[in-house]
Design goal:
alpha/beta, TIM Barrel, 2 domains, eight-stranded parallel β-sheet, two-stranded antiparallel sheet, 14 helices, 14% strand, binds flavin mononucleotide
Length: 324
């Protein structure tokens, strides 16, 4: 299938694996890229720009296909060495960057100079238009269903995607809640040029995370995610567990007076404990409502091939019937 997104990134299928903290290692990105999608290494999971440079080199040993790097710009106590990370990306010869969080305008000149395509993740039409106006090449439109940070507007993809299509000139992919071929077709119908998936890619054979994480996603239904940190206007959709319920109880008790320090135990430094050690009750980790549609743990190739053949079949058989 050819779309503006496959052409832009030089990939076979219009499927991107979004950056994921402590999931987006070289193994994950290479498996998705080898299967014909666009795999993405999560920049900030690497502790230093030098570590990122090594991770990019490791990924290149595992695939000769295009892959990207995610750069997340979030307010933090210790600002990461962004110039160093950008340098590692450019010198590593990476040609695709997924930006997320704050406005990436400051980094665009250097990335463009290096002929890198930038796809910015946005949770609203307003931010998507901003990304277009500052020169981003594409947008990943992340609906309210998504795992991770859905923003504060709470607009689901059923409305957000066609709204993005009304306004945007640059191509966009549908992100949040996507896990199968019917949704790819629906996304295309609503004006997207592809899909971005996070949670679905964690439940694959190659995802370099503890088996407990994959099993938890398969066991979960669409009712098992929770929104945390709403009172801090830093909303995150996570899979429920004992740590998350404790966090929500604190939010209820402390109300508007809550501070980040009050919940630090449940949100800071939990990713390695979950993703590497498989300690599932330790705290909040991003997971989307699409968990309800995830029933198995295929390889990335099996998953992507299945999505593409499902999409093809729906377009040729089911939809063709309605065209008459
Ligand atoms: C475990 C996990 C960690 C994530 N970490 C990041 C991150 O570090 N930076 C980022 O931009 N997005 C992150 N995301 C969001 C994904 O890139 C993607 O936008 C989102 O998962 C799409 O929704 P879905 O999970 O319903 O497919 C994360 C998502 C998950 C599930």
């Amino acid at each position: 299938m050819k779309t503006r997104i496959t052409e832009m990134f030089g990939i076979e299928h219009p499927i991107i694996q979004g950056g994921m903290h402590f999931v987006g290692f070289a193994e994950m990105a290479a498996a998705v890229s080898n299967a014909g999608g666009l795999g993405i290494i999560t920049g900030l999971t690497q502790r230093t720009p030098d570590d990122l440079a090594k991770e990019i080199a490791r990924c290149r040993e595992m695939t000769d296909k295009p892959f990207g790097v995610n750069l997340t710009f979030l307010p933090s106590v210790n600002t990461p060495d962004y110039p160093g990370y950008v340098k590692a990306i450019i010198e590593g010869g990476v040609k695709a960057v997924e930006t997320a969080g704050n406005n990436p305008a400051k980094w665009l000149p250097a990335l463009k100079e290096a002929d890198i395509k930038v796809i910015h993740k946005c949770t609203s039409v307003r931010h998507s238009l901003k990304a277009e106006s500052i020169g981003c090449d594409a947008v990943s439109v992340d609906g309210f269903e998504c795992g991770g940070h859905p923003g504060e507007d709470d607009v689901g993809n059923w409305v957000l995607l066609p709204r993005a299509a009304e306004e945007l000139k640059i191509p966009f992919v549908a992100s949040g809640g996507v896990g199968n071929g019917a949704q790819l077709v629906a996304a295309l119908a609503m004006g997207a040029d592809g899909i971005n998936m996070g949670t679905r890619f964690i439940a694959t054979k190659e995802a370099p995370v503890h088996q407990n994480v994959k099993d938890a996603i398969v066991a979960a239904s669409e009712l098992d995610t929770r929104l945390v940190m709403r009172p801090l206007r830093n909303t995150e959709r996570v899979l429920t567990n004992a740590g998350v319920e404790r966090l929500l109880q604190k939010e209820k008790e402390l109300g508007a007076n809550i501070k980040f320090e009050d919940i630090i135990e449940e949100v800071a430094g939990v990713y390695p404990k979950i993703m590497i050690e498989g300690d599932m009750d330790v705290g909040a980790w991003s997971c989307g409502m699409v968990a309800g549609l995830i029933h198995d743990i295929p390889t990335c190739k099996e998953l992507i091939d299945r999505i593409m053949s499902e999409a093809d079949q729906i377009i040729r058989q089911r939809l063709a019937k309605f065209a008459a």
